Amino acid sequence: MRFPSALHSATFLSRPNRFLAETDLRGQKTLCHVPYSGRAGELLTAGARVYLQEHRGPGRKTGWDLVLVRSGRILACLDTRLSVPLAREALGAGIIPGLRGLGVARAEYPFRDSRIDLLLQEPGGRRCLLEVKSCTLVEREVALFPDAPTERGRRHLRDLSDAVRQGMRAAVLFVIQRPDGRVLAPHEARDPRFGAALRGAASAGVEVYACGCRVSREEIRVDRQVPVQLGH
């Protein structure tokens, strides 16, 4: 997936709230939208190199989106809006063997108390609910989700488990939006309840997958499946 327009280098200054950042763009203090609701405290540190995309339109408070942040030698993508399109690309490319042959029947599928990202369908007609999660936190090559407590994430897992009990397939796919995650695990220190919910969902028959991405200033692409370690 190529970024639709050029990204502009800037310096991160501060984050007044979770959806707004102050940056230094060519010597000018510039406000930008952060399309990421998590903490990202390990990435968005004062002085960090970030990359902005110009985005203007009605109703916007800023003319820029913060898309990438440099961490050492790697780039991480903080635009969580891209996780579902990336999942679609992974499905189309057959990168997740367990999901090969399934086509996208519908997006934002309402089920119980959730809107599940994608409703997939097998050639024979059996349906599969797929919830997609964006992951940006990596420590020692271990991608960790979530980076902040998520009741919404636990609710999704409960609803996916209910779908399995009703005879449907259900899966959760973690898209690691950076290149250095070699394995994915629940972040027990940040949200032990999510880790327990993920293990419970897996025991109930929910399929758990993860994939990694390569990231540059021009594009982000899913390029591999990575193993999942459920822990405990």
Structure explained in plain terms:
The chain is an alpha+beta fold and 232 residues long. It has two domains: 7-72, OB fold (Dihydrolipoamide Acetyltransferase, E2P), CATH 2.40.50; 80-226, 3-Layer(aba) Sandwich (Trna Endonuclease, Chain: A, domain 1), CATH 3.40.1350. The chain contains three helices and 15 strands. It has helices spanning 83-93, 151-165, 192-204; strands at residues 7-17, 20-25, 28-33, 49-54, 64-71, 74-77, 103-111, 114-121, 127-135, 137-139, 142-145, 169-176, 183-186, 207-215, 220-226. The strands form three sheets. Strands 3-2-1-4-5-6 form a six-stranded antiparallel beta sheet, with no helix packed on it. It starts with 6 loop residues before the first strand and ends in a 6-residue tail after the last strand. The model has no long low-confidence stretch (mean pLDDT 95).
Q: Main attributes?
A:
alpha+beta, OB fold (Dihydrolipoamide Acetyltransferase, E2P), six-stranded antiparallel beta sheet, 3 helices, 15 strands
